[in-house]
Structure formats: structure tokens, C-alpha cells
Amino acid sequence: MKNATITAVLFLLAIHQGSANFQCPSATFVELGKDVRIDCLISDVNDIYWLRGTEEDHYPIVKIEMGLKTISKVAQDHFDITDTGALVIRDALNDLTGSYVMLHYRTDLVREVDTVTLNVTTLVDSIIIQGPSGGVYPMGSNITLTCTFQKGYVVGWKEYENKDIFVADTKVTADTKYDNFCVSLSDRVSNLQIIGAELEDAGKYSCNTESYAHVEIEAPPSFRIIFNDTNDGGTDSTDSHGVIDITCIARNARPAVMIRFETDGSEWINPSETWTVSNGVTFDTYATLKYNFRKNQTDVFLTCQTFGQKTVPPIEKIIHLFTPTCSLEMSNTEATCICISNPPVYKYMISIDGKLEVGKSLNVENFDGSNISCIGVNYIGVGISMFRVVESINAQPSLRIMFNFTDDEGNNSTESHGVIDITCIARNARPAVMIRFETDGREWINPSETRTVSNGVTFDTSATLKYSFVKNQTDVFFTCQTFGQGTVPPMEKTLHLFTPTCDLHVNTIEASCNCTSNPPVYKYILSIDGKMEVGKTLNVENLVGSTIICTGVNYIGVGTSKAIIVESNTGSSYLVYVICSVVVILGAVIVVFRRRKKSNLCYRNYCDLVITTVLHIPSE
């Protein structure tokens, strides 16, 4: 006996505990004198031991060890073990109430342990006053089954085939199917509640062994409507256009639904064909209506509806079928047919002056003035757009204005100054543009010369105006403008030409002439007391008292500045002469001393040098 105790203790200490891989009920109930099985749903059956009491009771009542089942002598009358490791209790007695410990040692030596409480109670059908009643419930709803019993007794709930779920309000099964089940107890009332019922919760439930409440769960279908074009030409009536199949599909319904149709608010129509497919628990139902379109019919609203379920309201789907509604869109080079329809357009055509071209778009660069329309065809009819006239495809040109000088002296009038060419160039226009001129806001003038060059799709146009300036004219504004395109507004460029405006700037050394003009000045002239000197600048140191005028010449005229008299710089000259005289005397002394003759010491530049280097006075 001592050796057996040591062996048991060593065996329990030699293993280590791991994560659970089983599901034992926390408690179970058995009616007095009946059998019960406590199953922990062990997935990896190896060595299993069931102990009565606590884990410290080291002697199992039943076990599977190394594949062999063993039942202890004290347990042979009431206990057994299945091949899957479930504890079986037969002919339950009151003194078997208590705790039972399951020990399992997996093949990887991980230890699993759990405790189950067994309650032996008196459960007799005669204590039930009123059993539960079933019904039909929508999926996702909460269901309550009620059982009324005599005070002082315990009531249990089971599913059909004696599968125990609850005793009192304690769940006695480890099956996860019942995770959304619970029991609430009050005085002589037991309520079995199913929360968020699923399809698998449908079944028969009872709180006794005589009557069961049947619970049926209804599932709404997913619903869609489709159409299919057929080759059926319809009836022989001249008004018949053809037949289209409208099919409604209700998937995963429980029970199977029925389907009916309605057209444009008329009475319900039975489908031409119906079939149902079972998915095991749910059903798919298909219903098809063959609808005959009339030739002048442009649209129809078709409705299909499910019906036949008790708790799920009817579901409807509507489809709108209509012939094409078409419009024609024009771009710079292309006409495009746009149609809206259901079913979609399967053929596009474009009519040009009555000639049909198959396709959705057409290049219309060479169809100026043509009548064009768009046609769309679907399986229930034809749609035609409004007619449009193809207009010239307009492309906006780039525009620039420039001038060029000529040798033309103009007419023989003494008022004529000369001729200048004003040229406007419009590039990449479609169609080719025309160009006209305007001077100083007067009426439009046609150009003296115009020429157009084709680039294939676009055109370049250049236009020249020969403009004669009069001698007393000082400026002119030229405007050239494009015109002749249907959708592109006229474009304008303006050029301002004017004779020089000149200013004369004079200091003690230099006179400078500055002029602004368009075109630019090509010749500057400075007049000194009427004598002309060509150039932009002039030294005026020796021109004190002289009158100077600045003149600028461009190709359209002459500009003259105001006359300026060159004034002497008296103060500074006097100082220079005094200093120069002193320098001359010093120079004479130096000459005598060195016996050198410096006869030209007082000329101006040498004097400046001496003043600068000897006396440190800046020269003028």
C-alpha cells in the first residue's frame, strides 16, 4: 500500500500542466436512478484519469492508461469510461452527488485538468404544469420558451432525442451550439431563451419527456433581378418587337419562397417558369417571366416580389427597361454618339446626309455643312438623336504683329514722310482666318496684301498693310484683327509707333542725348550753335556759352530736345588759375635752380598733374 501511494504521488509530480484542449461542462444533472455521461470532448485521447472528490484524491475511479481501460473495484457498480474518455455514471444514487476531476496527459506530456459537479435530482414529468409551445421566428430574433412547474421541484431543458442542455439554470453540456442559450428562473417558471437565433437553432425543445415545442427559423433571401435577351421574335402581330426574359433570383431562403411579377402597376403575374434548388438548410428559387415588347413601346417598369414566408415580409426588386435616349456631341474633329438605355446599346450608328456609318464616333473634318444624327440600338428598341449640321471645326490661331521699313518714299505729296509695312500673322487657325487693320480707332482697312498657307489641318495667314506716314505725324496706333471663324471670337493685337521724344543732359565736360521711340532711333545728332555733330555725346569743355540741341531720328520721324546753353564754371576755374599761377612761380624757381627751361609748364594738363600730385587738390 505504501509503494502504491508513493507511485501515485511521483506520477502526479512528474508531469507539467499545459493549455486546455478540451471542453468539460462545469456541472451536470442526472435524474435519480438514471444514467449520465460526462464528456469533456478531448481531441487528443491519451492517458485519462477520472477522480472523485478533489485533485488531491490520487486514486482514479476509472482510467485509460497506455490504451487500456481500468475500473476500480469501488466503482464497478456505477462507473465506466468510454473510448473517448467520457465518464459514464449508471443508476445514479443521491450519494454520487459531488465533484469529479478529469486528468488528461497528452502525448506531448502536457497535463490537462478540469472539475465537473454532478447533481443527482428528482425529475419527474408529473411536476410539469404547462409545457412550452413553439412557433416560427425570423433569423436573428430572440426566442423564449416557457415551462410552468410545481413549486419545490427542479426542471431541466433538453433538445429532441434526450440531449440535456440545462438543469435548473445550469448548462450541463459543453456543446458550443448552445452558447447563445440561457435559462432564467422565477417562481415556478423556467424560461429557455435563444439569443439571436440562427438557422441551426431550429429544433424541438422540451422541459419534460412527453411534449416538445417545435422551433422553426425563417431566413430572408438575398434577392436580385436580371434580364436576358432572346431570339424570340414574339407574336405574329405587327406591333410585336421581341421577347426579353426577366429572371428573379431569391437565394438562401428558409423556407423556399415563391416569386411573382408586376408590369407598370398592373395585377400580379405568375412567372413563365420557376425552379427551386436545395442547399441543405436553405433554398434558392429562380423565376422567369417572358415579356413581349411592342414596337412602339419605349419603356416598362418590371417588379418581382417574394412571398410565402410567415415572419419575413415580402421583398421586392424593380427594374426599368427603356429604349435608348441618344445625343450627339461634337468636338473639334469628331462627332460622338452618347446613348442612355437599359439594356445597354449593342450597336451605334451615325447618319451623314442619310448615309449610315456603324460606330460610336466619326471624324467629321471633311463633312462641313453635312446633316448628322446619332442612332443607338438595344434589344428592346431604337433611339435617334436630333439632327445637327456639321460646322467648320474652329481652332484658335496664335497672333502676332510686326513692322518692316521700306525704301518707298510714298506719294509725291510734300506731306509724305515714307512707307512702313505692318504685318499680322495668324498661325494654326482652322478654318483659315481673314485679317483687317485699324489705325487710331478709324474704320477697318483691308490689308494691302494677304496670303494663306495650309499646314494640312490648320492654316497660317499673313496680311500686310502699307502705311504712309505724313511728315508732321508723331505717332499712330495700329490694330490688326482676325475674323471669319464661327465659334472662335476675333483676336486683336495692337502696335504703337511714334517719333522720338528726346532729352539733353549737359555737365561741365559732356553733353548726352537720350531718346525714346518705336521703332528705335537709328541716328543721333547734336547741334552746337547750328553746326551739326553726328553722335550721341559731345565734349563741351571749350564750348562755354554755346547753344546745344539734341536730335533723334527713327524711320517714321524726327524728335528734337530743348536747347541748352553751356555755362562756364567760374568759381572752380578761378581757383584753378590761382593755383596754376603759384605752380608757375614754383616751377620758375625750380628751373633757375636746376638751370632747366620749362617754357610750357602752365598748359592745362601739366598744371592739373602738379596740382594733383604736389598740392593734393583733385582736378576738375
UniProtKB/TrEMBL annotation:
Topology term for the membrane: Single-pass membrane protein
Protein's UniProt keywords contain rRNA-binding: no
Record-linked SMART domains: IG
Domain Ig-like: residue ranges: 397-496
Example of a GO MF term: signaling receptor binding
GO cellular component entries: neuron projection; plasma membrane; synapse
Family annotation (InterPro entries): CD80_C2-set, Ig-like_dom, Ig-like_dom_sf, Ig-like_fold, Ig_sub
Main subcellular location of this protein, as a coarse class: membrane
UniProt-listed Pfam families: C2-set_2
SUPFAM superfamilies: Immunoglobulin
Key words, A-Z: Disulfide bond, Membrane, Signal, Transmembrane, Transmembrane helix
Full protein name: Ig-like domain-containing protein
Organism for this UniProt entry: Stichopus japonicus (Sea cucumber)
